[in-house]
Amino acid sequence: MPFTPLPPAPVPGLPALAGLCTLHQATAPGLSVDATVARLKRLHAVARALHGVLIARVTDEPQYELKMLYSHHAWLLAEFVSAIRGRVGEMREPPLGLEDPPPAALQLALDEVAAAPDGTHLCAALYTVLLPTLDEACAALHADAHPLADAPTRHLLRHARLDLAEALTAGRQAAQALAAASEPSASWLEVLHLAMAAAHGLDGTASEAPPCPAARFSTTPRPYDPVPRRDARFSDPYNMGVNAEAFIYDTSFPPEPKLLMLAYKRLREIDVPEMMASIIVETTGKPWGYTRDMTRQLWDEARHAMMGEVLFADLGVDWPALVRVNFTWSLGLNTQITALERHAVLYFIEQGLMPRHGKRYEWEIAQAAGSPLAITFQDYDWADEVLHARIGKQWYVSAMPSQTEALRAGDRAWSRVLMDWTAWQRDGLTTHENWWPALYADACQRLGWTPDPRVAAFDTSYADQRADLKSVSHSG
Ligand SMILES: [Fe+2]
Ligand SMILES: [Fe+2]
Ligand SMILES: [Fe+2]
After folding, report:
1. Which of 62, 418, 365 lies closest to 240, judged by CA?
2. pLDDT on residue 474
3. 348 Cα: distance to centroid of ligand 1 (angstroms)
4. Would you tell me how many other CB atoms lie within 10 Å of the CB of residue 471?
5. For 377-397, how does the pLDDT look when each residue is reduced to its tens digit (9 = 90+)?
6. Domain holding 452: CATH number?
7. Considering the domain boundaries, does residue 26 fall inside one?
8. pLDDT in tens, 145-169
9. Does 449 lie in the same domain as 353?
10. 54 CA to middle of ligand 3, Å?
11. Burial of residue 82 (number of CB atoms within 10 Å: 0-12, 13-18, 19+)
12. If you measure from the C-alpha of residue 243 to the centroid of ligand 2, how many angstroms do you get, rounded to a whole number?
């Protein structure tokens, strides 16, 4: 039918249809609810699988930048997954069918990505094949959905595409940097394209479907490796020679050098995503909300680590040369106790950060030291930890008989984790060198601080901490 414009509105120039589109645009019919739900479910299956792939790599990916990138993008994908789940739930379902596996050919593409043998292949697959295709599918659904009838889906997709654009910019940069050192297999990337095509495209809208290619890497699924790995900047990962808490909580020390310890404590939080990834991977049977919240916390902890990196940069500290950031906590927890016990330890430690000897105190140190940057970081570190205590309550404490028992279980599990100071020394893994005096001397010299002999002589390690594990706040 030809479009007949209505008589003009009394006030000319006011936007029609709440600004969604023109009246003319709205006269074209859009997709049905069923067709939209079917496409959203494809996007959901892909985003959810790729979220899982990224989480599973956080622990054993040695490159610090990639650990951080995966933590970020896992969170963006978790938010996208949550948004789709919410929207599908509004569209005349249930049954929602969100847990149903995708078609076999699409599943093969996802399995192949999960089995990528290294970061080079993973980044090439994610950032040059899967996520660009996901973004195209979002764009296509946005174009096909009715702008008025299905404004909520279009809104969701528009916002998701902002995140995908950000992820793709950084991700492509990562893929390129890695490919410069060693090229990923082009024929394997082609397998990924072919597998998606064999599923009638990622969103199932292609009319033609070539035969599904054979599995390549996924013939041997890649098991999750709970042992954390670090790159060369973390040159002494068993070093427990400098007890940051002992220094920070000693009120007789001045605040300025405590900035160095705060930066160290923040950067050391890199071990929390390494540990939380293991909980998320190894815990099954939880609702999606659990994965979403745990992923948010994992990403927060990664941000805290990067705040430490930035604080060191602001102070001009060459941390790879002067600071020994260990991985003993994530290593111990990931390899010695169960996923539930790890969650218990995390909750126990984070509860310990709430009272006065916790996050508020660190923020006050930043204030006393007069560092606007440290004040900002500690402010948000503190706020995030309050959120984490809530997440712990919702997902860990609720699975325990009581709050008291939840805390006791965390205390017990934490005490069972063996931090074998002497064995690491005996086996030549570390000398537990006290790196503090050199770091402090360097800062005094560059920042013009007057060296304080008491501060320079600080020599408290974690060696004697065994008997008093309860009071150790760890990294927070
Ligand atoms: Fe936390
Ligand atoms: Fe933190
Ligand atoms: Fe933390």
Report:
1. 418
2. 56
3. 11
4. 10
5. 999 999 999 999 999 999 999
6. 1.20.910
7. no
8. 999 999 999 999 999 999 999 999 9
9. yes
10. 20
11. buried
12. 17
